[in-house]
Amino acid sequence: MMRRPAYRTGGIRFGHGFPMSRWVMRLMIANFAIFLLMAMRIVPVGAVDWLGFAVPGFLTRPWTIVTYMFVHGGFMHVFMNMLALFFFGPPLEQKWGSRFFLRFYLVTGLGAAAFSVLLYSLTGPTIMVGASGAIFGILVAFALNWPDAKIYLYFVFPVPAKWFVAALGAFTLLSTVQGSADGVAHWAHLGGLVTGFVHLRYGDRIGRLANRFLYKERPVAPRGRKRRAAPPPDPTPRRRRRADGDSLDEVDRILDKIRASGMDSLSARERAFLDEVSRQYQQTQGTRKKTRTH
Predict the structure, then answer these.
(1) How far apart are CA 96 and CA 173, in angstroms?
(2) Which one, 194, 219, 231, 291, has the greatest CB density within 10 A?
(3) Are 125 and 180 a contacting pair, CB within 8 Å?
(4) How far is it, in rounded angstroms, from Cα 6 to Cα 111?
């Protein structure tokens, strides 16, 4: 159990004091429904081979990189995962919005599968099932956003979220390195933790660097014509490009801060800087529209 931080409710209320957000509810329904269908033999038990993620065969069954998150090995497996999603998911979805929350949930699940591929030489051929990787990503996201929120172990002992997740991460890393015969995919849990942390701390910056690399314009000289000597560079545009690059770096830093701590953590100078960048962007877009209409 945990003491919830203060946040606005924008989803569906489930009981008193427990606002249930839309995608948390949908994910819980999907996971429990698939578990019941398999428990009642409506879906054959052998379907695990077609829905679970296995490193040797995922290239021929690419859908398993997503479907494995919705298949569980037993009642306690699905119950504990959905209980954690019930407590820690709604505040994140209400803070981020449903689209980013769902993307984050799926990305951390994909990260857990990616760790299974990377550590295949240590883990060997296994079929991985369960939403635990995505749930561990949700846990680290909650700790980054509300580090001092109290999580009650065994309903009695209050532990700050940041220390709870840090201890959980240390235990998971130790279990991954030493190996374990408990049938738990600790490496997948570690993959969810690491993917969630990297996505929140550096996701915007990585995305912008990738876009600059992928969409960088490369001028091509026309064929059949002699190349003329390029005129000496104008130092003014170079200084302007350097200033633009510094501004982009500052925007990245502020966006990372908002992602980790929210808008309230910004200083007056940072807010003014964002307002100025937004105003310049709107002016640029307006100029482009006018140019197209002429």
Answers:
(1) 28
(2) 194
(3) no
(4) 30
Taking the alpha carbons at both ends of the chain, their separation in whole angstroms is: 62
Tokens at 219, concatenated: 């001028």
Which candidate, 12, 168, 6, 9, places its Cα nearest to that of 84? 168
DSSP code for 61? -
Q: What are the CA-CA distances from residue 199 to residues 5, 18, 65, 105, 162 (Å)?
A: 22, 27, 18, 11, 17
Please state the pTM of the whole predicted model. Answer: 0.67
Q: Is 247 exposed, middle or buried (0-12, 13-18, 19+ CB in 10 A)?
A: middle
Angle at 258 between CA 244 and CA 66, to 5 degrees: 105
Coil, strand or helix at 113: helix
Which residues, 6+ apart, have CB-to-CB distance to 198 below 8 Å?
Answer: 206
Per-domain residue ranges for the chain?
12-202, 244-294
Secondary structure class of 70 (helix, strand, coil):
helix
Nearest to 48 by CA among 62, 59, 60, 34: 34
Q: What span, in angstroms and rounded, lies between the C-alpha atoms of 227 and 174?
A: 61
Residue 199 pairs with which residues in a beta bridge?
none
Task: Flag whether pLDDT at 232 surpasses 60.
Answer: no
Nearest to 131 by CA among 1, 24, 39: 24
Tell me which range, 7-16, 167-176, 253-262, 276-285, is most confidently predicted by mean pLDDT: 167-176
The per-residue pLDDT for range 120-133, each reduced to its tens digit, is: 666 667 788 999 99
CA–CA separation, 56 vs 83, rounded Å?
32
* Closest by CA position to 30, among listed 81, 65, 93: 81
pLDDT at 205: 77
> CB neighbours (10 Å) of residue 157?
9
* Residues with active-site annotation: 132, 189
Q: How confident is the model at residue 194 (pLDDT cuts 50, 70, 90)?
A: very high
Q: Is the Cβ–Cβ distance between 151 and 167 less than 8 Å? A: no
